[in-house]
Queue: 2 jobs
Job 1
Amino acid sequence: MTAAVVPEKPELPHGPGTPKKNGAAGAASLRSAARNYVDRVRGGELGALPAVLGLIVLCVFFAVLRPVFLSELNFANLLTQGAGSIAIAMGLVFVLLLGEIDLSAGYASGVCAAVLAILLTDHGWPWYGAAGAAILTGTVIGLVLGLLVAKVGIPSFVVTLAAFLGFQGIVLMLLKEGTNISIRDDTILAVANNNLPPALGWVLLAVSVGAYAAIQLRRSRNRRRRGLAPAPTALLAVRIGGLAALGAIAVHLLNQERSRNVIVDSLKGVPIVVPVIGVLLVAGTFLLQRTSFGLHIYAVGGNAEAARRAGINVAAIRTSAFVICSSLAAVGGIIAASRGNSVDPNTGGSNVLLLAVGAAVIGGTSLFGGRGRIVDAVLGGMVVAVIQNGMGLMGYSSGVKYAVTGSVLLVAAGVDALSRRRAVRR
Amino acid sequence: MTTTPILRLRGIDKSFGAVQVLHDVSFDVRPGEVTALVGDNGAGKSTLVKCIGGIHPIDGGEYWFDGERVQVHSPREAAALGVEIVYQDLALCDNLDIVQNMFLGREKRRGLVLDDTTMEEMAARTLEGLSVRTVTSIRQQVSSLSGGQRQTVAIAKAVLWNSKVVVLDEPTAALGVAQTAQVLELVRRLADNGLAVVLISHNMNDVFAVSDRIAALYLGRMAAQVSTSDVTYSQVVELITSGRSGDLGLAHSNGVTA
């Protein structure tokens, strides 16, 4: 707080107690909503804007240079390629919101994938038992990490760096010094390799858009009835219409035949991982935006002392963020195992964690805590997937791909730091 | 003596190890009045406030609230009585909006889901009751607020819970001229709404501008508690710096021999 002699903003006719009447034309309220958004962006709250712009620029760039980038086959590949690291990135958002880091999420997903593979293949467990055990393993890992950070007080960087090395070792031990366990369970394999029947894709889209519209309209009506300023109707229409349009384009493209040889194998429909990620996205967003627990995560990340004084159990919030992170890492491990048809010591290894952290940060989640949303993980994950996929199509080597992805992460972190400075300076 | 005190402290002692910080302190706070608590650095203002707020348990003496003798061992118990303290650092989360900050830790819920509408209504009503007109939207983030607006939010947060006593620790220390005037106006309005307000301040102008009564601490003892209209500026400064002024104050000017 500065002691500058700044006069307060002039008194405005619309105080908090006099909600704006919604009689104004929809266009005017839409314009004021747009102006509010511009103000927020200028104030350093960029949110998902850089990721969305980046995604558009990258897609146009690759589409112009390599038209095959826009093919339906490649579009479907893009989604399944990104899904594993998006799930891990969603978990990392919870930890990053607290201003902490989990460097072990990648190998945690590897450990969970190894548990899955061993139970499925070596012990013949049913898919739900093995998947449940894998996720439970993630939960236990998160509980241990979280307690070490929140109760013992070791910095999360050190705890998870130690776990990063330790889990690498555990994966090797579980897989008997590096053998590869293949997965033959049809259900698990279907997650990343099969598609929904085309009709079901449309049904799911209709249900999602309908539910979204119902929730938004109900909230708006509720606010109006209580005399509070509701979101402009035009803005709601744009949001709902936008979701429906984008969804319809995506489902339509994915429902096209994309098999090179239709006689051998028909390949069409929305990949099953898409609704899986969708469910995680909705559940995570609900948890963070609509519940006390989510609010307390933001509060602890914004000002832990204020949260403590408000009676929030800061240690419990910290621990549960790590639990959620490692559990989602387990889901990411299952998706990776499904996509790879097997689990080996590299599952969840090499650059998986870095790409996931990159996804969250590129999507707009702050490394300084307190700012970010679950959808950031999806947007950022798509940016990362587009770079990897597009550069692969252009024939660049892995070396160049890594270097470019690293640079994009650096730019995203730089934008985060600069926008934060801008917000603090005011 | 128009009203009876809502908060009465009698003979409060408080030591930290071998150091006795408060000696036999008596302190009255009346509803509808602003009681200024003044004293030099180290006089024990902060300790007294923390005893009132339940952060420090008292070693000896009596804590009376609303005519009943009570024991206050934690901030939660103080809050349950209706005592809210706004500390200097305000304890707001920059990344949350005004409504979220006001309800932090005590959110209204419907089942699992946050009841945003009710919280927004209650926050708006509270701010309206305080005639706060300086914020454009109660849904804006605290990071975008000025120092005076933040202070306003912190005070509104304290008032929201039907509190009876609100203690403000140096609310104007970090503010400019215009914002100081606004916060003082708000402090006055709190008392006019029937709350008992304790204002800690180093600034004599602020004290004389809004307070009804002045309590001066000197080296851990209550030198005097007087009506603001009965004393002059220089008398208060004397009470702060030497513990006595003419007939007022401690019997012995060094205050330690008693």
Job 2
Amino acid sequence: MDRRACLLPVLAIAAFASAGRAQDSAGGQTSVQVPDEGRAVYEQICQACHMADAKGGDGAGARIPALAGNPRLADKDYPVTLLLKGRGGMPWFTEILTHRQMAAVVNYVRGHFNSFPGTVTEAYVDRVASAPPPKPDCMTCGN
Amino acid sequence: MFDDFEAPSRRDLLLMIGRTGGAAAMYQAMTALGHAAATRFTGPPQLSGARPGASVLVLGAGLAGMLAAYELSKAGYKVQVLEFQDRPGGRNYSVRGGDRIVEVGGATQTVQYAPGNYLNPGPWRIPHHHRTLLHYATQFGVELEPFIQLNHNAFVHRHDAFGGKPQRYKELAVDFKGHTSELLAKALNAGQLDSAVSKEDKERLLVAMREWGVLDKSDRYTSDLHVAAQRGYDKAPGGGVDGAPTSAGINGLSDVLDSHVWTQMGFYFGSVMQTTMFQPKGGMDMIGKGFYREVGKLVRLNTRVTKITQDDHGVAAQWTDTKTGQAGESRADYMVCTIPATILNQIDIQVSPAKKAAIAALPYSAQVKIGLEMKSRFWEENYAIYGGHSFTDQAIGLISYPNYNFFKGGPAVLLGAFASGAGGYQLAGMTPEARIAAALEQGSVFHPAEYKAEYLNGASVAWSRMPWIMGCCATWSEESRATHYQNLVSLDGRIVLAGEHASYYGCWMEGALLSSTDAIMRLHQRALAA
């Protein structure tokens, strides 16, 4: 992969930071680094909602879906598309994770919390992400 | 000689400007004269003449739901409100000593703050132009006090600037202004901008840069007493024989750029971040409690809605009482549903496929707030920081100092984190104990001698793990807004949705109230036309 392609996700993060996702925010930008390793991505990002055991949880008559033992994850494109575009209450993660990190965490979730065959690569995520990432629409973000 | 000159009224003046300069000029002038409003609020909804016996079922007792209940019942509707939680207010929420915070997965915190102390996990600051919110707060007798937004004496920290040592905002901001002014003056003096600005503007710009940037006689930004009068002295002005002040140094341009201080300077320019800002005395939930005093008798708490239906004659919500297990059904002619999209997306609701698609297209953000109770107000006593924020590029985002009980000693609760983005997920994914430990570690950068030593106890709210909402605020994209927004807010048979998610003012209480106002006005028209 060439250097230019490698830089793209970083640029996307910078562009996002000025637009702001958090509608009310601390102000300024953090330099929080997310590691590239699948397990670390899961622990630092995904388990905020899906929980450390990947079993999700119950809320007010609604559920945060379990990722452990989830048959929908048999299809590799399913988690990749979710990370790129979001679905239901889950946001897109294009401003937080690089395609390399997305591939790593998809492999971790499909392999560690399930036993689905096959892995995805960064190039695979690049291909699925043919459309530009979602642009936040917020007039009152305060950033 | 001016005796016969009658000053034009504002209206005359605006008409004149409108005729000569067109609508854009008139709007600009209106803004300058204080006419063009920063919010759509023009007064509470004027609803009257509800048909006798007409009824509305409201789902959710947050601000949107309670505004709907208040105004609709005033207009003559029979109103019932169903609320999942054991308290009203929704995200208009404060936690105090003795409160329990239960997360998805069961982690439970019992808050240990001293009486009078609190954390506002959700909304915490009110812009002066959020007229709807200010209207109801005033009407319900909620006492407001200033929220210290901009504190020049607080800190800015980045791990890779100034060797990781926090700097005072005023020093960085004055230095940034000075260096950029010097550079612009240099370019102007060298004639490099002659094609971009007129001769007259060039002269005025040079004056502006000298005055605003506090440049010296050679148009350079250097350390002197004039600069010290903005960013702070080495020896402050005193009295008597040794009263003469001395200036402090300045930071070099490169160091100032390392700090990214422009992100904070820019932050304060946002219309929702400009001073003056307010907070209710005693906690943000005073707003919700104000509404609840009016509509509490209409609200059924601990009620989980399981199914929503409608037909030609009315609406119905099936529910379960979360305390007793009792099942029931509430019926009415119309419905205002303020259940957050994260939850509503998983409830069986009888609306059009387009509205269902809109509800399913709203992801929620995952902010984290952490309130740390400290033995003393060391930030006031040792640092002369009274309210406002110290910013960091670590996951916690900032620490923010309490805006009440100044000079009164401890214990006091400061905001130890307002995390979003990757930092928000990192903190949310931790146990409550680990969140506190991380907040103490990261916040120590500002007050290393005191932060851990003065710590008493803490509480955190990770919005993605709050069972009643599983997220903080709806997030729109340009695409989802274009495809789904109108479908989300449309009146669907007898059901209308309301809340911050159904507004262009996302994540602000004002958005929830404006959304609800608009929804009930449309519902009222529909009911009158039926």
